[in-house]
Amino acid sequence: MARQELLLLSAVAAVALFVVVTLPADIRVLRSHSPQDWLVSAAVYAALVAHRRLPLGTVAVTVAGSVVLMADGMAYPLTLPAVFYVLYSVALETGPGRTLAVGVTVKATLLSASLITHPGLAGFVILLWAALAVTSGGASRSHRGYVVEVEKRVRRAELDREDEANRRVAAERLRIARDLHDAVGHHVALINVQAGALACLLDDEDLGRARESLAHIQRAGEEALEELRLTVGLLRAPGAAEPAEPAEPVPGLDQLEELICSFADTGLRVTREVTGHARPLPEAVELTAYRVIQESLTNTRKHAGCDTAVVRLDYTLGALSLAVEDEGRPAALDTPTARATRNSRDTLGGHGVVGMRERVAALGGRLSAGPRPEGGYRVFAELPLRAARIEAS
């Protein structure tokens, strides 16, 4: 609204300046003009109503009326403001090429008519005002185009920000889902195994080992609840319901022995083999390796039908390679039980293989999982160290 008011005031000032500077000589002879001149002026201003629908026709009417008044004795016809207005309008609403053609034609016509009817400076004054009208219209068109482009960029930036926010939310939800599956799912699987063993022990009236299984169930349940509490805590803003707590240490390969012992409590004996120089690795690699081993051993305990597994770690200069293997049921057996076991192992708990692939791919690594020709199952992952350092930095 302020810009429109400024344009209106500028137009009024221009018209006032035109009247003061160019019309004094004609004011005294206004009464001498015939009714035809006034009719021509009225027709010219009435034609402005159609300037949006018929811009070129309006230009022709205003210029023709001005030429008629010049020929009748007016050096500065009363219709000149109408001519300047339509020139401004054409320059504002059309492209540079059309504006140039119309402007040159109108200015040449007015200058020629003025020089013929009133030789002197009047024609050049009219030419100057016509040029000013065209220039003002072109400047207004450029400004309007600039404003439209800026608004488009602002809208695009807002959409980009919304897309980025949605992408971050989706990535965070996926990360939390992986953590819930890897951590809580592991403990729940152990509880399930121990509960099955407990049922057998109660049938055999082996109360001592039954109490031991109950202790394992209780410990696994407590750990699952703690993992769940920590993960859910990520969804809360600090101070929203509980005071913020110090961040828990990220699990890594230094806790691998504790993880292996947790499986030993369920009857799965895990052997660890290390080649290369074992050393601390980037946090992202440590966490990914730990989660892959945890998920693989959990599925071995649930689906393999064997009580041994091997974890192999190979430290090289640029990568960490790991493999989790078990002997399981031989792949050559084609019984319904064997087929069901292979299918369940291939899914790795439904979301397990998907989560492991996503974790490994995030570091630029690769993962393969499937039955071994000689029987059993093998999960292999290669985690590059350089990509992890770049991501951490």
Computed Rg: 43 Å
Determine the fraction of residues in helical runs and give it as a percent range: 55-70%
Cross-sheet strand order for the largest sheet: 1-2-3-5-4
Percent of residues in β-strands: 5-15%
Number of helices: 13
How far the N terminus sits from the C terminus, by CA atoms, comes to 50 Å
Uncertain parts: 25-30, 237-246, 330-344, 346-350
Mean pLDDT: 76
Main beta sheet: 5 strands, mixed
Question: How is the quaternary structure best described?
Answer: single chain
Order of helices and strands: HHHHHHHHHEHEEHHEEH
| Number of DSSP-assigned strands | 5
**What's the structural domain tally?**
2
Judging from the principal axes of the Cα atoms, what is the shape? rod-shaped
**Category from helices, strands and their pairing:** alpha+beta
Set out the fold topology.
Elements: H1 2-22, H2 24-27, H3 35-47, H4 55-71, H5 80-93, H6 96-117, H7 122-203, H8 207-233, H9 256-264, E1 269-275, H10 283-304, E2 308-315, E3 319-326, H11 336-347, H12 352-362, E4 366-371, E5 377-384, H13 385-392
Parallel strand pairs: 1-2
Antiparallel strand pairs: 2-3, 3-5, 4-5
Helix pairs in contact: 3-4, 4-5, 4-6, 5-7, 6-7, 7-8, 7-10, 10-11, 10-12
